[in-house]
Amino acid sequence: MSVRRVRAAGARDAAERSVATVTVCKARGVVKGAGWGALPASWFARAAFVPELGPLERRPRGRMAAMGRTQRRRAGWALMALLLADLLALSDMLAVMSVDLGSESMKVAIVKPGVPMEIVLNKESRRKTPVTVTLKENERFFGDSAASMAIKNPKATLRYFQQLLGKQEDNPHVALYRERFPEHELGFDPQRQTVRFQISPQLQFSPEEVLGMVLNYSRSLAEDFAEQPIKDAVVTVPAFFNQAERRAVLQAARMAGLKVLQLINDNTATALSYGVFRRKDINTTAQNIMFYDMGSGSTVCTIVTYQTVKTKEAGMQPQLQIQGVGFDRTLGGLEMELRLREHLAGLFNEQRKGQSAKDVRENPRAMAKLLREANRVKTVLSANADHMAQIEGLMDDVDFKAKVTRAEFEELCADLFERVPGPVQQALQSAKMNLDEIEQVILVGGATRVPKVQEVLLKAVGKEELGKNINADEAAAMGAVYQAAALSKAFKVKPFIVRDAVIYPVLVEFTREVDEEAGVRSLKHNKRVLFSRMGPYPQRKVITFNRYSHDFNFHINYGDLGFLGPEDLRVFGSQNLTTVKLKGVGESFRKYPNHESKGIKAHFNLDESGVLSLDRVESVFETLVEDSPEEESTLTKLGNTISSLFGGGTTADSKENGTSTVQEEEESLAEGSKDEPGEQAEHREEGEPPVEDTSLPPPPEPKGSVASEGEKATDKENGDKSEAQKPSDKGEARSEGVPPAPGEEKKQKPSRKQRMVEEVGVELVVLDLPDLSEDELARSAQKLQDLTARDLEKQEREQAANSLEAFIFETQDKLYQSEYQEVSTEQQREEISGRLSAASTWLEDEGFGATTVMLKEKLAELRKLCHGLFFRVEERKKWPERLSALDNLLNHSSMFLKGARLIPEMDQIFTEVEMTTLERVINETWAWKNATLAEQAKLPTTEKPVLLSKDIEAKMMALDREVQYLLNKAKFAKPRPKPKDKNETRAEPPLNASANDQGETVIHPPGQTEDAKPILEPEKETPGGSEPADTGPLELEGSGAESEQKQQPTGQRPALKNDEL
């Protein structure tokens, strides 16, 4: 009885795709296969995707189909390349920077993908850059170059100009600047009542423009370091800067084309840097740290509280809160250096007393040298008891040399050291703390390195030691750049909550008429605190004026500044900020005569930079309107409710404020901070709450009215849940989901509240310091751009001149080298040498007046002349390496072809056409190489070679492409699977079993045991001498057999049909 062999589905295709097993030998770097020989491992490492061909194309058999697949793949690769280019272009704009603007120097830091928080090195490879600008008629210098120019041209070199920002001409700091630097001529700006630098009649710059130059230079340093353009930045400012000074810095940044993400106080940036690197040490227990920062121009003492707080978005996160701030605007290292400079000037005058010489103080260049030497001596005296000050050729070619001791220096600055504890006491008073609550005092700033400063401070704080575990120079820059990364949308950093504090309180003042007696009306002046001292910011506030029905004015001024001394108040400037004139109030009342007025609401914003702004003023009205049940369908109400959950149906109050719950709670706390209790009580009686608290729930409405759907959703969104409300607020409790009784619902439906908001016109009159108009800002920005373009053009010309000079000298030297003499004739070298000598003479005689274009043209002309000589030398240098690589590739390709032809026919995956194509390419490459080498040998060395390195590379690419195609095909080919019966389990075949025995299943007829020898079908000859039909198991046609096999229970054999026997 014969049996039929069952073949698994797809076995024939698997047999055709079978391939010899490939073993990668990593140690030897080769790949071995059955009969393939040794092949370079790099062929398999570069495996699958060749853009020109694709991984498994069968080019010879279906060339048209392969071409279609190739075109589709090329289109896909082009799309991927386009997307990648867009991503790369986007990544080029991801970097952000920070600028720590100090009085004497600045530090710049960047964050970009792959470079977290790195200090930028300037052109001199230094981490600190002087804030110095030298302005001449035709050029500018910055940084160390400008600092060195201060000796040669002190009048054109501007330093320490930040103390002039936001100051009018009568400010004491302007007079102090004139006293310290008499070489600078300060002009008067009648429009803004400020000063400007007059270097020459043509060169006049405001302090904002000079600062804009410095910011632009800092951005160029950051862009060179990051190797990509940067526009976003966080800039540090002193904590004691008022509104006018902060606005001046923002205007300077606009002139420089810099987008300021935030003006961060330098003490806050230092505290953030300290906390970021000690995140693990912060817990729920509050830690009070004092930072004492004495820089070059000022001193700031800050008390910071660190602890973890719970947030809605990210759970427990670390937070720093500024608790107290004290400062001294003029106490710093600069004042010490000026005292020491004055001492050295006196010593020099004493040395020349009998020579009837001029006073050294009248010579600006000599005083600039003395100031630089005083800075050096002060630094040395911090570590030594005495030091010798010496300057060669101080004035009139007279050298200066004098010994200075630390005791003399401390005596000169004795009154300054007495002011060291002042900021500490101010900070403690503003924080309402004592020294026992301070855990540690940390030193920041370069001037804290003076031993006497540390001695006096340690005695003032009463601690065992002062903390020096922070980088005193770079902490602020690192904290600012961390904040820049947090504000940028391109980076995701670990949250660190920063709650800065308001140094100067801000209040609103207004006057209104009140009735005192019958027929007698008087004016009453009211003050309402808007932002209290040491209150956190950023935050928004809303003030409501309820007793006005016509246009009126109110004033925004600073609050109580009693904590400042008389001199500080003079330096502070105007205490009046802005007068706000409202227009359109009466018109809004006439527009809604039948509506109930809810007051005139003024929305204020104190942003992250500490800059106060008035966002808008609105006149709000309410009325009850009839609301029949048929007006709104169920779907409409559902849509309104859903939209309100996403901010579309909020109440007017929350929509106007636009503040978070935390900020609104802060507003409610500020209500009690009035100037006088009597005014507060009267204010409440008149129905004018000074600060509107939008986070509190609305008062209960009568039973006859009900809040609108939008107001219900807002109550839910603001978190005013029923469990937090009073039990008597039944109407509000129902609005949060409890259905009212049928009778009450009938009463509530007829009417609802409708709120109308009318925008009120606002005219602002700035009182402290007028801002630059848009036209003036545009002109200043254009002036800086022109200067930058001039500097770039000058730099480009210098580079062109340097390139031309370097090419001339290098080429003249090459003409005497053997490798160049070998490929050139004597006549050719003489011609090149003559042209080079003529160009060198022209550069020395006329090069100073030559333009950039002329220099580039001269360089291009010389390069064209020498191109043939250089080309012959370069080609000869490349020949050995290129020819060796070509020989190796030919040998490996030949070995691969031989191995492919030795694969048995049953396992062969390559077609004869493919192997013939590879053989043809190998033969053509061999022939081209031999012919080209023979032809090159006949040419003289002075002629253009016919054997070119680019031709060798092209031949290698063509040959490598053919081999790679076959390797990709071999790599993705799958071996033939072994078929097995689904309903029968069998033991593993013996090791010596043949492949045909392992790949087939024998089904026994009924009644025959497994031990019985099956009757095989007679072999039949296939027509044409082809392969026998029983060389592989047969495949059952149709799905009936498979379904019947699945239905058979386990352990039973399926019954065979008659035609299967």
UniProtKB/TrEMBL annotation:
Keyword Glycoprotein tagged: no
Record's subcellular location: Endoplasmic reticulum lumen
A Pfam family the protein falls into: HSP70
A GO CC annotation given for this chain: endoplasmic reticulum lumen
Compositionally biased region (Basic and acidic residues): 672-687, 709-735, 978-987, 1010-1022
UniProt superkingdom: Eukaryota
Biased segments, Polar residues type: 635-644
Chain spans, region Disordered: 625-756, 970-1061
Protein name: Hypoxia up-regulated protein 1
Organism: Myotis myotis (Greater mouse-eared bat)
